[in-house]
Amino acid sequence: MTNSLLSKCFDFFQFFKESLLFVPELVLAWWHLTKRIFLALYRYWNTKLLYDKIFFIFLFLQLLFSVLPWFSYQIRFFEMVETIFLGPKLNSVFILLSLLNFFFLGFWKSSWTRIWFFSTEMIAIVFVIWGYLDPKRYFYDFVKPEEVGLGLSFYLFLGSVFLAFVFGYLTFKKEDEVLGRLS
């Protein structure tokens, strides 16, 4: 029995030693893979038109600001005041729409992506306006609306949605002009 336990300990030590020797190779492989991905993205970025680059940036910002908390309120514990930040109840809708727009329109061009983009941007704007008008129903339900402050990320999300909409329109218009000249 001791021989078996000793054998297993030796095998484990051998495995651990060989695993540690493999780490530098693994790091090097990940470095090369990451480098290739970023170089491919850089080459892809250089093929884009200026409006398309700006559009891509605003789609990314829309995704970023949809994840951040939009609201804040303060709670008083005896003499201490603590600020709590929270996102809307429909946060998953905003994140999903922003994520899908970022990937569909940033990396994939198709005839239906334009319809998808404008439809989802309109849906996001409608939900934001409804939430602004009736925050207890769409944004938060356990806090009094007069105690909640709108955060900077809420306004930045609205700005990024608006500017993504504008630059999306300009990008699609420029693509149509370029395709019209080629035809």
From TrEMBL:
Keyword field: Membrane, Transmembrane, Transmembrane helix
Membrane spanning stretches: 12-33, 54-72, 92-108, 115-133, 153-172
Protein name, as recorded: Uncharacterized protein
